[in-house]
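The following record pairs a protein chain with its ligand, 3-methyl-2-oxobutanoic acid.
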Amino acid sequence: MHEKTRTIEIFDTTLRDGEQTPGISFTTEQKRTIARQLDALGVDIIEAGTPITSKEEKEVVQLICDEGLSAKICGLARILAQDIDACVDCGVDMIHIFVPSSEIQREHTTKMSEAQVKEQAYKMTRYVKERGFMCMFSAMDATRTRLEFLIDLYKTAEEGGADILNVPDTVGISEPFAMYELVGEIYRAVKVPISIHCHNDFGLAVANSLAAVKAGASEVQVSVNGIGERAGNADLVETVMSLNAIYGLKTNIKTERLFEMAKLIERLTGIPIPVTKPVVGDNAFSHESGIHTHGVIVRSDTFEPGIMTPEMVGHRRRIVLGKHTGKHSVEKKLSEIGMSPSKEELEEILERIKELGASGKRVTDDDLFSIAEVVMGEIARHERIVELKELSVMTGNNLIPTASLKAVVRGKECTSAQMGLGPVDAALKAIQQVIGGEIDGDIELKDFRIEAITGGSDALAEVIVGVKKGDRMVTARGVREDIVMASVEAFINAVNRLMQR
Ligand code: KIV
Ligand code: ZN
């Protein structure tokens, strides 16, 4: 085997085994869209369905065959003439026939002896070939089948004319060393190419597929996002990228389309891609901790594999802010949009981000920019005329909302307690009273707006206020997770600005 020059075929079974995922059923249009996208991605074979199962399934397979795609279209069939005929009727390029071969499956499902399995496998392989179709033969539950019989069965299918032999780990019980041994045995016993079909019951589907390729398999059966029976099949994206980046083997996949493909299946199945999913998960190229982000900003492969970049798979690198954030990432993000905070401002921004992150919130770029605007727009602490010290509010269905507040105004500590129509109203009345007592002239709240910066009940609230004193008016903002705090902060920022002018 000339490892580096081998091109591994990608056989996608998203539309067949993938659709067998409990709870998933694609519409005809969705299946056609998926088939087109798989073709654009560069998969070699699309297993479009099992035409014998229903009239509708047969029609969809037919429609996919009529799409004129570059990928070969394959239909699945038991080793029964009527199943094979249904595939023939659809106009597929390839027929995948399978038969249970392990003792447990033979005894409890088909009730066929090993000899009967062999005989029927031979007959049906011939049947497919006589009709002029490419034939893939699968010994179902191969990894639990008696080895001698398994080899004999594959040789029989080869004699019958099978073009490719598939080795299914139907219940996902193999492990890479065992898989390597098994596929090696089969590889040495036959001349036709070998395909591998792994289920993920122990999370080893991708590893087992790679081991099979090491042992000589030249095709891997995968599904997008690993959907399929029970824990699913080997994931297409992970398998392809491991083959490419780790093994240095070629596939025909346009890897820069992988992220988009995974997202399409996420949308159509409604099964969310976990954030930690390799290659395409939200966190696959995200960095939060100070050491990591600093490293990645200097050189991305300090804390990424390097042999796989976000660009290669159509994803993007993200510097995520949170409780582990360091000042380099904040500085970099802000400089990208032309903001250059002073040392003090940077520290204040960082402190607020860490506070937010520690409360379990995912801090977005929008959160950062709003916080930075507020901090950089604020007057430095020592120049502040009003500074909030304490605020508490009480509210409820049987309570009149009440706010108690302590603030330092022009160096003097003042307190106030006020009731209001709601907690924000009460808090604003309290701060207005405190300020009104220490500053000459009326300070009026003229404008008040609340906006959620990001979605979700834990979103940051941005409050924008317009505050007037005499004929002067300023607008200021407050950004906090807590609407009451954001409102009071915005009001205080406005007063500080008004008094500075
Ligand atoms: O898991 C399996 O054995 C299958 C066969 C039909 C190949 O899906
Ligand atoms: Zn399967």
